[in-house]
Write a structure and sequence with these properties.
The protein is built from three helices and four strands. With 117 residues, the chain is α+β, with helices and mostly antiparallel strands. It has a four-stranded antiparallel β-sheet.
C-alpha cells in the first residue's frame, strides 16, 4: 500500500489559472522527491452540509472554489524524506508574494490507505 498526503483549500475562482500553473510547477518536484502521483481537483459539485462541509472546513467565501488534492508516495518513510527535502529546497519557496490562495485556511494530513481497489 501507498501513503497519501491529502489537502483541501479554497482558491478564488479568478485565480484558477494561477493555481494550475503553480500546481504544474510543483508536481515534478514532488515526483523528484519520491511521489508517484500528484492529483489536483477543482470543485465542481461541493454541496453545503447540515453540520459541516468542505467549504466550511476551509472557510471558503462565495467567490472561492474548493480544491481537493492528494499526493501519493510508496511509503510513509518516502513521504517523510520528501518533506524533509522540501523544507530546504529553494524551489519550494514562493516565487513572489502572490500565492493564488490563502495557505492559512488549507487543511492537510497524511493518510495510510486501508482499502485500494
Amino acid at each position: 500500500m501507498t501513503y497519501v498526503d491529502g489537502f483541501v483549500l479554497a482558491v478564488p475562482a479568478a485565480n484558477k489559472q494561477a493555481y494550475l500553473e503553480l500546481a504544474a510547477r510543483m508536481a515534478p518536484i514532488f515526483k523528484e522527491f519520491g511521489a508517484t502521483r500528484v492529483v489536483e481537483c477543482w470543485g465542481d459539485d461541493v454541496p453545503d452540509g447540515k453540520l459541516t462541509d468542505f467549504r466550511g472546513a476551509v472557510k471558503a467565501t462565495d467567490d472561492e472554489i474548493v480544491v481537493f488534492s492528494w499526493i501519493e508516495y510508496p511509503s510513509k518513510e518516502v513521504r517523510d524524506a520528501a518533506n524533509e527535502k522540501m523544507r530546504s529546497d529553494p524551489r519550494m519557496k514562493p516565487q513572489s508574494d502572490t500565492v493564488p490562495f490563502d495557505g492559512k485556511r488549507m487543511i492537510f494530513g497524511g493518510f495510510l490507505p486501508i482499502l485500494d481497489e
